[in-house]
Amino acid sequence: MASETKVGAQLERPAAVPRERLITPWPQIGVRPIIVTVVLIMVIGWALNGSKANPASLVEGVPHIVDFVTRLFPPKWDMDTTPLAVPAPLQGALGDHLTLTIPLVLPYIVETLQMAIVGTIVGVLLSLPLGLLAARNVSPHPAVYQATRFILNVNRAIPEIIFALIFVAAVGLGPFGGVLAIGVGAVGSLAKLYAESIEQIDPQQVLAVRATGAGSIQTFIYGVVPQALPLIATYSLLNFEHNVRSATILGLVGAGGIGFILQKYISLFQYRNLMSTLIIIIVMVTVIDRVSDYLRKKLI
Fold first, then answer.
1. Contact at 8 Å (CB) between 180 and 163?
2. What confidence tens digit (pLDDT) does each residue in 44-70 have?
3. 120 is in which domain, residue-wise?
4. Could you tell me which of 187, 168, 188 has the C-alpha nearest to residue 120?
5. Residue 265 within any structural domain of the chain
6. 256 and 115 in contact (C-beta within 8 Å)?
7. What is the four-CA torsion angle of 230, 234, 240, 242, rounded to 10 degrees?
8. What pLDDT does 1 receive?
9. Average model confidence (pLDDT) across the chain
């Protein structure tokens, strides 16, 4: 009898829907969705009012945009001639030296790429331990977790260009200050992403490794790292792409890279030279994106 009662309860139909609700094409709207929608509309309106968003002014400014874009074309290339030493056995056929003509901005582009690579390495090395401390499931103590999260929040609140000014004042003009700014400036966001990657692991896999008799370190190496590593590597590659753009901007404050040349062309209104520089930057970013996408597919 008890089993029949249980089966009957399982087969019990839900409360009947009123007949008039069956024929209406409109979904039933509760109070909560209405409140959320109203609050969302108020926030968007508040943001639009504060940002002085005015589509009419944009329409009026279209001719100025067209005029500016027109000034960028055709691109003008500043070329630099670099002498190359010829090995002694070849001097009879080629002469004492050869000249190599390249775009003037190319060495600065290479310097920008170098800054992004080293800055990313610095950021990853600084972010990994902080990411472990900021992950709720592996942090040694709640106080450590909260303190680390606060440090990461402070780091994210400071723009990278401020870090660039600090490090340029400390180590002088040049790419080293930019490398430090990129590496330290990325810690707040990168460590948080690492922490979230670690928090998303499947605890059942960790328990399975622990059940084999593994110690704490072995459990972490074989139960946590394999699960979090693909996401950590992906976030690191995405951070590298971001750092390439950051290295481009930091040169505006003397932190090395292509930013110095961009500032020069903008200040002198040499828009055609600016366009040639932008073309090289676009090519560099596109190549980096393709390589990064290939590596991400291999890692995931």
1. yes
2. 999 999 998 888 999 999 999 999 999
3. 106-299
4. 187
5. yes
6. yes
7. -150
8. 47
9. 86
